[in-house]
């Protein structure tokens, strides 16, 4: 992903960036006591923020096999020693996918990607030029296809711009709502799919019938035209458009403390 | 029955040109020293398998050891892209690299099938994705009981499976603990196996969550202290995060990479003994 969009919005005394708003919004969407399949980068930051604020009993599951990890600092990779040291249980990689993810035991899966389309399908494989001769080769699928399929619900967290929010994916790595409507059900995917897409501009949610992602909430200081301009398709806007609550002082301070525990920036 | 070997002897004996080789490790216990020894012995035309090819695979690919990569996520964890991997795929440098691409769940199950002596594994996976269009080892199968259509992936049985563990005893029994990924399946799926270990002990003390591979399931053991660096070995040393960051700079440039290859690997002392 590219550099953050710094909105530098201010409410009261608190100055925060659009990225911080996005991370806080993602954290807020994780219910206490639920289990969350976490990838590295922003999802891990958000999950750890949630565990330190409103959701102390959030169960963090990393695909390296750590169930119930409780890191006291942000891990740099999904297999850091701190995750194994603090986990309720450490299981093998076949077990994490076969016994824990596949049967739908995990409430929330957290995904990002290089591209998302209007039905919440995600590309993390190749950009441009076709699969055999790509312009940019990305890391690939990892755990994402089965997280997208089998978690009870999926949250997508991505920075919103016309390169990432595209009409047509260059490659379908993970399925959201397929071609829309009841396509996901027809494919036999068991989880509900991407129920929320959190961006640095606001929040998108699928239309109940068409499943097309619709702008339902705007971030502080963002207007509809900006959100539309950052979207590669003709973005639908909810009739009753809400707005996101800015981060509280506590959320911001905990988030910044967390980020300070890691020297490095977030991975793609 | 496992035999204790020096690392260079073990690689020379077990890994041949054109072999299918899996060096597994999921962030933890990555058999980096063994990978470097393969580069040093200038193996060619390997099919390399790994769920998470990271820095040591970038090095093997950049050194021209591989003609094919079987994988599910290729990146520098926490840092970004693998530049030698990208250069090989996008520009065929130093040699063209064919790929066979899966998801993690698919790769893990391919090893499970391989370890189980089955021709394929069944999973809920890949549905609706573009991966099956490009990967011949992904098909579908109907459940004989319910008729449900499920994904099938062919077994992965490498010629050589290589892993790193914390300890072996003098008889060649092996124990590893912490995040153990898909290493047990890799050894059991492979025709031949090499385990590098941090140390040889008189007696293995059972550890919580420890995985023990009995000596008769392993072909060769080599003591290589620090053999997983820059990844980590729980109970021995931490992950060297700076190395992963620095690799990004070295690997972006072919000349810098070539210099690194010459000085750090090819002209370097033989592997630690």
UniProtKB/TrEMBL annotation, chain A:
Name of protein: Glutaconate CoA-transferase subunit B
Molecular functions per Gene Ontology: glutaconate CoA-transferase activity
EC number(s) reported in the record: 2.8.3.12
Species assigned in the record: Halosaccharopolyspora lacisalsi
Keywords assigned: Transferase
Family the entry assigns: Belongs to the 3-oxoacid CoA-transferase subunit B family.
One Pfam family of this chain: CoA_trans
UniProtKB/TrEMBL annotation, chain B:
Keywords recorded for this protein, A-Z: Transferase
A GO term, aspect molecular function: glutaconate CoA-transferase activity
Spans traversing the lipid bilayer: none
Claim: Transferase is one of the keywords in the record: yes
One Pfam family from the record: CoA_trans
Enzyme nomenclature, EC number: 2.8.3.12
Entry's family note: Belongs to the 3-oxoacid CoA-transferase subunit B family.
Protein name per its UniProtKB record: Glutaconate CoA-transferase subunit A
